Amino acid sequence: MIYLDNAATTLHKPDVVIDAVVKAMKTQGNASRGAHGATLSASRVVYDARVKIAKFFNFDKPSNVIFTCNSTEALNIAINGIIKAGDKVVSTDTEHNSVLRPLYHLQKTKNIDLQFVKADGKGVLSLDDFERIVDKDTKVVVVNHASNLTGNVNDIKSIGEIAHKNGAIFIVDGSQSAGTMKVDVKDLGIDVYCFTGHKGLFGPQGTGGLLVKDGIEIDAWKRGGSGVKTYSEDQPLEYPTRLEAGTLNSHGIAGLSAAIDFIDEIGVDKIEGKEKELTEYFYNKAKEINGVKIYGDFSKQHAAIVSLNVKDYDSGEVSDALSNDYGIATRPGAHCAPRLHIDLGTKYQGAVRFSFSYFTTYEELDAAIKALKEIAS
Amino acid sequence: MPLLIIYVKMDNSDFHYFIIFDIYEDAMAMHDELDKASIENKISPAPLDLVEGVCCGVSLMIQPEDREKVSVFLEEKKNLKYKKFIKAMRSFKPKRDRYC
Predict the structure, then answer these.
(1) Cα–Cα distance between A292 and A197 in angstroms, integer?
(2) Which residues on B lie below 8 Å from A232 (Cβ)?
């Protein structure tokens, strides 16, 4: 199989990640639960992972690295734990349902004032629109770093500046950026960065987290065993314990930790560079095929994603043909990004998303281009 | 009849000093920094009887002779969080936290 669905999850995991998970499953007890060798082994792995992740994103407080099972969970924790009844919240049409649905829910249950920045025909957001919509009443701005549909990378630093000059908290969905491009949360002015472990970071599914800037208060979202302050009736207030009741996925976290080592060894700049070359190679060949329409703005920084349609064919039919006739895995349909599909005019056709990783080869891209030509002919 | 109190000392037991924490992450951070400073410290169960259970389950056990050195260290390292630095009778097992 030629796997070109890396924006959904990276299928090819480094051996060191797999080995780390296996080792963890054989040696680790329950992290933060006692002081015997097995629990300390787990506690050490979890703590080291927090330190590595903090360093990886240039974040200076490892104890504010909160582990979750994916970025959807991280975003839900941040959105539901910060936004209060009646708050004004600004988000964008380019968001995934992991942002949209929690916000819609708060709109229905807490009557929040929810406003969206629209995308243009290429899925691009305008900073002028942010300037116009974000004001002193805005409590939170929530934006993705890179669209999971078009691959467009948003100008996070500028959007953060607009949020902060209005006193708003800036939450960033890093699902498509973590591991695939350099993310410096301090330089970008991000208050809460939500990430998943199983995509660009090459970690196991069931891992992810959020980085919470010092001073940002997020309400506990679950309560229970923490291994600390047992006689307190309340969930401890200290991060990360405030947001991590129950046994952690320390086996997965061991894999994620090894994955960070793997990326550090290669260098995230090198990974980004290779993925950029692969994306440009595919884009330049695909756009020359008669009947192929590509979505997104490829003149700026871009994630390793190319979404397209062939003539007026249903995207599911095209993806199915790619899978069954050519052994190529892609993602059709709506990609959990309903507002952006509406803006792009693809609500009823969807789009076929090709997404690449550091392990993708040019031979695989050539095979995909050949298949597209045949389907379009 | 006078009450006779017999004090039985456990093997290797003696007064030691303990750094107590709110959460594990603070303990692990302190453990790393003490190691870097070559100050012997062992991760051990927190002496719950002395902290009324309102801490995390582990503490860092310090040798009595290092008490002063650790006090100075804690004073200097303001970025490291801990709850208390206390004295208690426990045994200092040299094989503690050898996995960590």
Answers:
(1) 33
(2) 54
For A35, which of B54, B55, B58 is closest by C-beta distance? B58
CB contact under 8 A, A229 and B53: yes
- Report the catalytic residues of A: 336
pLDDT given for residue A23 in this prediction: 97
Distance of CA B80 to CAs A76, A370, B43, B88, Å?
30, 59, 16, 22
Between CA A126 and CA A133 the distance in angstroms is 11
pLDDT of res. B58: 85
User: What residue of A is the nearest CA neighbor of B42?
Assistant: A35
CB contact under 8 A, A35 and B99: no
- The domain spans of chain B are 22-47+60-91
What ipTM was predicted for this assembly?
A: 0.76
Query: Across the interface, which of B55, B96, B100 has its CB nearest the CB of A228?
Result: B55
Q: Which residue of B has its CA nearest to A37?
A: B99
- Coil, strand or helix: which one is A34? coil
CB-based burial, A98-131: b 16+ in 10 Å, e otherwise: bbbbbbeebeeeeebebebbebeebbbbeeebbe
Contacts of A63 in chain B (CB under 8 A): 23, 25-26, 29
pLDDT digits 0-9 by tens, A58-99: 999 999 999 999 999 999 999 999 999 999 999 999 999 999
Q: What is the DSSP string of A263-324?
A: HHHH-HHHHHHHHHHHHHHHHHHHTTSTTEEEES-TTS-B-SEEEEEETT--HHHHHHHHHH
CATH superfamily of A2-10+267-376: Aspartate Aminotransferase, domain 1 (3.90.1150.10)
Any idea which architecture A15-266 has in CATH? 3-Layer(aba) Sandwich (3.40)
* Contact across the interface for A63 and B98, Cβ inside 8 Å: no
The residue among A124, A133, A218, A127 whose CA lies nearest residue A171 is A218
CB-nearest partner of B25 from A34, A37, A240: A240
What is the rounded CA–CA span in Å between residue A245 and residue A241? 7
